[in-house]
Amino acid sequence: MNPVAAFAAAALMVGSPDPAARFTARPVQAGETAVLVFTRTTGFRHDSIPDAIAAVRRIASENGLAVDATEDPSAFTDSNLAPYRAVLFLLTTGDVLGDEEQAAFERWIRAGGGWVGVHSASDTEYDWPFYGELAGAYFAGHPEIQPATVHVEDRAHPSTSVLPEAWPRTDEWYDFRANPRRSVHVLATVDEGTYSGGSMGPDHPIAWCQEFAGGRAFYTAGGHTRESYVEPLFLAHLAGAIRWAAGLAPGYCGNVGRETPRRSLPRRPPPRVMTPRN
Ligand SMILES: [Zn+2]
Q: What is the CA(48)–ligand 1 centre distance, in A?
């Protein structure tokens, strides 16, 4: 195999979508749980996108999920979205959907769809208010990639249940335009005392979830680096998020608007009684 063909084969193996490839509708199959991975960028493009897609494909196969990855916004119609239980905005940036596509996605969420936003999903669709509420916060800036300690507030949710309370890792630590805590259920914060350049202060949410508009939404700011997608705990975080968003694992994401940072109140375990969806 010549070097160019070998490179192309390797790119296929890690599942990097051809940005120009057209989306092909998935037939609805009874008993199948499918997730759609959307990686379109119109701004900054992370070189970790192929690694991230490969990681989601591995997670999907380990959890019995079907997965499609696309950069084609025409995937966002009522009929195209219907087969999917979860849609991931994986390292998206900028204005990625047109008005009709946005409306179809909004209907899909309102019908009970689950959204997972990773890293620059918060650097996406600044002029679409529904998306801003779904994501919970918009990106504001970041210092250099460096180690920091994440504090896991909720260790019952499927996305955080295997994480340690103090979770040291290296990533690009996002600051947000506003603290989302009053409108989302915060799962984890990053400790600005453990790295330099953070600007959110002592309460710096870094992963959260919410029941939103009839659907579910999860966001994690991690995942800038290629290394993130071979990091066992980050992969477990992502796997739990996908399982929760797809309705395969119950997780508490309510009590929104009545929460205060854990440092100012004794922690109470979140209720574990949920109505699982199937
Ligand atoms: Zn980044």
A: 9
